[in-house]
């Protein structure tokens, strides 16, 4: 009892019998970090009780990891009711759910109460309505990482944040494929970033290769001087099938902007395979990058594995202009926590 009384972190899964959690709840009331892997779609009232008695819970993670087809709201309802009562003290919330249909009302009660939240990581956001979204004012938010969210929803959260955001990690590929008003919304999104996120360090960004978008992107680079890692999608190929010549032209324009305006902290570029540089444009860019911090490039385009590209890349690696230039999966490129 003496040792468990001071327990401040617990990592467990839901296969443990509820009686053990009731036992812990009688002794452990100072847990600050609670990480739970949900391995069964069945309720565990002991975990709810453990959350209820905590005096200073700051960090909570929940990950669904089960294959059972039978599902009720049992794993969530009681546990997240108690979490909601602790919400105004949480600074880190990380949730991965397999089923959201029965979870809407629970999240709508939890999200507006996260007064001190600094890290918000959720794999799904489609359950939230616009009125509730506008109520979410996260003044201390530093990390925003949501897999399935519209670009318009992300813009609202960013606008209502307190100017402390350091990471905005979304899935820009989904914006390209599924949003009807992508071009206009992405322009608004870029503006929201540079007006509300002066401290941003890690950013995923999708935009159309128009003159206005390139102009606003350059404004972002000039203002966001702390930017370290940038994930970019620049082609709007889901609407207009662009020629290879046009795609190379867009790539060249982007490289020119990076040379003119990239902040000195920029160390990493992440690019999808609809983003292409000609051999000549890439060489010109790397030559002008010389003297800056070595650059890491992650790309899902196999064109850069060709012999001529590899020869060029290796030359600039040897000169210290490039730290790394890697062909990676889209999944790894989208995940800003993936490092090489």
What keyword list fits this structure?
single chain; F-box domain-containing protein; Leucine-rich repeat, LRR (right-handed beta-alpha superhelix); 12-stranded parallel sheet; LRR_dom_sf; 340 residues; alpha/beta; 14 helices
Helix and strand arrangement:
Layout: H1 2-5, E1 9-13, H2 18-27, E2 33-38, H3 45-52, E3 59-64, H4 74-85, E4 92-96, H5 104-110, E5 119-122, H6 130-133, E6 143-146, H7 151-159, E7 167-169, H8 172-178, H9 182-196, E8 202-206, H10 211-223, E9 229-233, H11 244-261, E10 268-271, H12 279-289, E11 295-299, H13 307-318, E12 322-327, H14 330-334
Parallel strand pairs: 1-2, 2-3, 3-4, 4-5, 5-6, 6-7, 7-8, 8-9, 9-10, 10-11, 11-12
Helix pairs in contact: 2-3, 3-4, 4-5, 7-9, 9-10, 10-11, 11-12, 12-13
């Amino acid at each position: 009892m003496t040792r468990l009384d001071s327990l401040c972190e617990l990592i467990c899964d839901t296969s443990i019998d509820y009686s053990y959690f009731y036992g812990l709840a009688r002794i452990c009331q100072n847990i600050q970090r609670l990480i739970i892997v949900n391995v069964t779609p069945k309720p565990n009232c002991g975990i709810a009780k453990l959350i209820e008695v905590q005096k200073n819970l700051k960090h909570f993670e929940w990950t669904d990891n089960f294959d059972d087809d039978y599902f009720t709201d049992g794993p969530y309802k009681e546990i997240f009711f108690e979490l909601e009562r602790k919400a105004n003290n949480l600074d880190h919330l990380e949730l991965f759910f397999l089923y959201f249909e029965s979870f809407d009302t629970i999240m709508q009660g939890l999200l507006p109460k996260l007064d001190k939240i600094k890290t918000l990581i959720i794999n799904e956001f489609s359950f939230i309505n616009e009125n509730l979204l506008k109520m979410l004012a996260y003044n201390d938010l530093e990390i925003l990482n949501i897999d399935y969210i519209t670009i318009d929803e992300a813009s609202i959260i960013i606008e209502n944040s307190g100017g402390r955001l350091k990471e905005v990690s979304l899935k820009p590929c989904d914006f390209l494929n599924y949003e009807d008003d992508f071009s206009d919304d992405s322009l608004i999104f870029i503006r929201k970033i540079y007006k509300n996120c002066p401290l941003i360090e890690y950013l995923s960004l999708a935009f159309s290769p128009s003159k206005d978008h390139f102009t606003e992107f350059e404004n972002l680079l000039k203002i966001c001087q702390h930017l370290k890692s940038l994930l970019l999608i620049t082609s709007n190929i889901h609407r207009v099938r662009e020629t290879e010549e046009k795609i190379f032209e867009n790539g060249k324009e982007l490289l020119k902007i990076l040379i003119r305006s990239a902040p000195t902290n920029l160390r990493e570029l992440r690019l999808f395979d609809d983003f292409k540089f000609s051999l000549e444009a890439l060489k010109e860019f790397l030559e002008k990058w010389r003297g800056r911090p070595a650059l890491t490039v992650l790309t899902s385009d196999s064109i850069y594995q060709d012999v001529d590209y590899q020869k060029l890349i290796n030359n600039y690696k040897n000169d210290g202009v490039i730290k790394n230039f890697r062909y990676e999966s889209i999944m790894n490129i989208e995940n800003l926590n993936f490092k090489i």
